[in-house]
Every structure is written in C-alpha cells, then in structure tokens.
Amino acid sequence: MRRVNWLIVHHSASSRDRTTKEDVYAWHTDPKLMRDGTLRWMGKRYATDGHLPTSVQGLRGNGWIDIGYNVIIEGDGGLYPGRPLHIPGAHTRGHNKDSIGILVTGNNLILKDRWNIVQTRTLMKVVTVLEALHTAAKLKGHRDFENASTECPGLDIQKFLRDRHL
Question: pLDDT (tens digit, 9 = 90+) per residue, 12-24?
Fold first, then answer.
C-alpha cells in the first residue's frame, strides 16, 4: 500500500444534482486541443494538420489517461470509484503522490448547489474509512494547500465536518 499523507476534498464547481461521474470522467479524459495545435489524449500529445473532425473540436477535456480523483460522491449521495486508491490521482499539484482525492459534486459557493445532507453523510463515511486505512493521513480541502489558487471546496472542510453531528 502506498503512503498517504493527505485526504484532499474537492467540489466539482458545477451543478450538485446534474453532475455525474461520467461528466467528471469526460472533463478529465476527453481530448484537448492545445495552443500549439497538438491534440492531448490519453496522456500523450499528437501532431495534427489543423483539420480536426467537428466531434473532436468541441471537446473540452484535459486529455488525461484517467480521471484525476480517487473517489466521487454524486448529488444523491452515491459513492463511485475514480482512479484506484493505490494509484496517485491528478487533483492537487505537488500533492498527488501522497494523497487521495475525494470529489463531491456541487459548488459550495452557490447556495442551490451546496452539498446536501446525503452527500455530507457519505463524505463522513468515506473519510472515516480512509482514515482507518491510512492512519497518518490528514484531512484538508484543496484550497488549504500552499500555492493553491482556488476556493475549492468552497468551505473550511475540517470545520464543516466537525460541526455536523450526523
């Protein structure tokens, strides 16, 4: 088992109830047209002649080989696997090798898309299990890391979970 120092919580910055694991997967793995005209897909760059099929031109993925998060929690509280837990994710620059990325759909900066009670309960269960498996791991939000230019997950995750007695 790899050493995990951090359990890092993210929000999707999207609709809580309409964002699915399939959406997140597409955001991460669909091809991406780079500024230099190459196409990034499946973790590699490919030269293009500038004439891409319309089906590729509209894709706005990152071109990664897999989803960046290890765990996804949807709006109905459903829990889904992302990258296998033994494989580092791609979710927090500089901390992927020693962390597990947990994504909860929604946007805590917008009232209608804030996490609901079932998502919060699922998140608490996930954190409890992962802390038991990785006893050295500390819980943080994405924004809590130095050089993180983000508000993600839109709240103080430790305070948020501590204040809920679910």
Answer: 999 999 999 999 9
| Distance (Å, whole) CA 134 – CA 150 | 26
- d(CA 106, CA 160) in angstroms, rounded, equals 15
Between 65 and 100, residue with greater pLDDT: 100
The CA distance from 29 to 34, in Å, is: 14
Q: Which residues, at least 6 apart from 92, have a Cβ–Cβ distance to it below 8 Å?
A: 6, 8, 99, 101, 142, 145, 148
When computed from its CA atoms, the radius of gyration of the chain, rounded to whole angstroms, is 17
**What is the model's pTM?**
0.86
For residue 100, give every residue at least 6 positions away whose Cβ sits within 8 Å of its Cβ, in sequence order, or none: 4, 6, 7, 8, 70, 71, 85, 89, 130, 134, 137
The residue assigned the tokens 């500024």 is 35
What backbone torsions phi and psi does residue 100 show, to the nearest 5 degrees? Answer: -120, 130
Domains of the chain: 6-30+66-162 (3.40.80.10)
